[in-house]
Amino acid sequence: MIPGCVPWPAETARRHRELGLWTGQTLDVLLRAHGERTALVSGGVRRTYRELADRAARLAAGFHDLGVRRGDRVIVQLPNTPDLIDTLFALLTLGAPPVLALPPHRRDEIGHLAAHTEAVAYVIPAVHQGFDHRELAREISGPKHVVVAGEPGEFTPLSSLYAEPADLERPEPGDVALFLLSGGTTGRSKLIPRTHDDYLCNLRLSAANARLGPDDVYLAALPIAHNYALGCPGVLGTLHAGGSVVLTPTPSPDDAFPLIESERVTVTGLVPSLALLWTEAASWSSYDLSSLRLVQLGGASVSPELARDVGERLGRVQQSFGMAEGLLSQSPPDDSPELLATAQGRPLSEHDEVRIVNEAGDDLPTGEVGELLVRGPYTIRGYFRAEEHNARAFTADGFFRTGDLARRTETGHLVICGRVKDVINRGGDKVPAEEVEEHLLAHPHVRAAAVVPVPDPYLGERTCAYVVARGGPPTSRDIDTFMRERGVAAYKIPDRVVVVPSLPLTPVGKVDKARLRSETP
Ligand code: AMP
Q1: Threshold 0.85, pTM exceeds
Q2: Dist. CA 323 → ligand 1 center (Å)
Q3: Which CATH number fits the domain that encloses residue 125?
Q4: At a CB cut-off of 8 Å and minimum separation 6, what does 215 contact?
């Protein structure tokens, strides 16, 4: 275990193994079972499981030659491409956990990840969506190696790393396999260490619940760097089942629909904003989408209307509520149409211990809304190198405080009712309010700031920043430019900036965000 990770108590780990929840395998096993079947389709590229396994072995050897060793962290910021799949499996094979950054992350986020993980390497595309990642890499200190998929400039080309496969030291099933980024937290993104054992459990349960088999074809519409499209069941769950993964350059119907028709895609996962776009497009599109047998909806609040609409126009819905920290609650295959539209599924494992508690931490009866706490075989026991935060985010006996508000139904389903954490869920992209406020407070013309969600018909929520000016009031454009210059990902830049004379306070003197939310026109 890498220092700074919180292991499961030995007795709990032993029970998970005994129960077969943890199978004692490592994630690279996913490429070993299905030989000549098609594993990956992307543009003109079609690769079998055997080819993927060969490429991963060669690339693992190349990373090893570069000096990357078991336990080293490697920041990976690649879009959904075959390079990402190769890199992921190479690092999983090597036991050097990839730190999965999202493609929109910029200097501020990557700099933080580099410092916090002491990553030895940073893997990037040359240019993605018009942005030159090599320029970003030049501004990041820490990682000894920058590896570029594409034209490398002064850095190491990814293509040069495919070496002769070598007999390398192997990771243990209890080792950290990968680091995911937390969406919902105070301050900066926390790092979520997922072990081979626990993540395999995660994707196996999710693949089984979705009834994935070798004939399934999964379209990765959302970023694979995100837990939802990576392992819920996503890319890795599909490979576990022996199915094929199809990558699309963008999730827009223009790119995705032709692929659904030509590859006979059976399963995909969408966030609500994308599902809205797809259902609209499906009504005029002439592409044949009839192969879709399951459309997952999740990542953000899903209205019953949208769930019904997706069910009618795209394919059977599966609601998915989950988090990179672990717990997954997904619709079982036999859910009634009513539950499919109104509930966010059921926790995947009977060993997921779910509590709904009031503010005092007392358990609430079925049907009452409170904060959702969870402990289980694939829910972490602590963030990486975050002792102080862990003391607040986890109970003394290891339950994770999700920050989500939920109620449980008599049928054991969860219905998500909001959240207590100070995060804006912008169409599935999580914007931590406190982090944005810190940036705003650094602006010379901002004395005080509070960021709150405002409802949005398309994204579900957008961000609104209330600011108290110091001197001349800043405009939205000033804030936009300022935050970009600070190297912040674009999705965190406030959608609206409202200048106010003062911020309302609660009786204990904290900013009254509830009032700001309710007063936002
Ligand atoms: P992430 O770790 O980025 O996947 O974000 C997890 C958070 O997204 C959860 O804690 C929820 O706040 C939110 N979330 C995920 N799925 C849903 C859903 N189906 N409905 C409402 N919120 C969701």
Answers
A1: yes
A2: 6
A3: 3.40.50.980
A4: 243, 266
